[in-house]
Amino acid sequence: MLASLLAVGLAACNDETKPLQIPSQHWKENVVRIETHPNPPLAGMSEIVVIVTGPHGRPTGNLIVSLRGGESQPWTQAIQDGFIGVYRRAVDIGESNSAAVQVRLQEGSEEKVLLFPFKLAGG
Fold first, then answer.
1. How far apart are CA 106 and CA 4, in angstroms?
2. Cβ atoms < 10 Å from Cβ of 109
3. Residue 3, exposed/middle/buried by CB under 10 A (0-12, 13-18, 19+)?
4. Is the pLDDT of residue 8 over 90?
5. How would you list the strands of the sheet with 98-107, edge to edge?
6. Taking Cα atoms as reference points, which of 28, 75, 31 lies closest to residue 50?
7. 6: pLDDT confidence band, cut at 50, 70 and 90?
8. How far apart are alpha carbons 103 and 95 in whole angstroms?
């Protein structure tokens, strides 16, 4: 009985429906992180929310942020949600188990592309 309860508990710990935590990345003085909706992401279209904070955790609202789900897809500019460092857009993140979102940050003439890999739910 105890062994079966332990097995069920371990299976619950490995549940692929738990929210996905994607590690943040850095560009210049900014910390860049993304969230997916739904979370964990499913194959196909998902909303990607990019959150950019600068020094002392202050929002960075002076960027042009574009997204794409792969090299073969065109860049799509994210919509800035006020001047609070939040940018969002739905993108096709593909069908394969291992997916990634490319985030292009532009500030004046400077540009940086960050790659955020993750696993899709159910994969």
1. 53
2. 5
3. exposed
4. no
5. 76-77, 64-68, 98-107, 110-119
6. 31
7. very low
8. 19
- Give the integer Cα–Cα distance in Å for 103 and 121: 21
Q: Is residue 123 classed exposed, middle or buried when 0-12, 13-18 and 19+ CB atoms within 10 A define those classes? A: middle
CATH assignment of 25-119? 2.60.40.150
Q: Mean pLDDT across the chain, nearest whole number?
A: 86
Closest by Cα among 114, 113, 69 to 95: 69
pLDDT digits (tens, 9 = 90+) for 38-93: 998 888 999 999 999 999 999 998 999 999 998 889 999 999 998 899 999 999 98
Output the six-digit token pair for 52.
């950019």
**CB 106 within 8 Å of CB 64:** yes
Evaluate whether 118 touches 36 at the Cβ level (below 8 Å).
yes
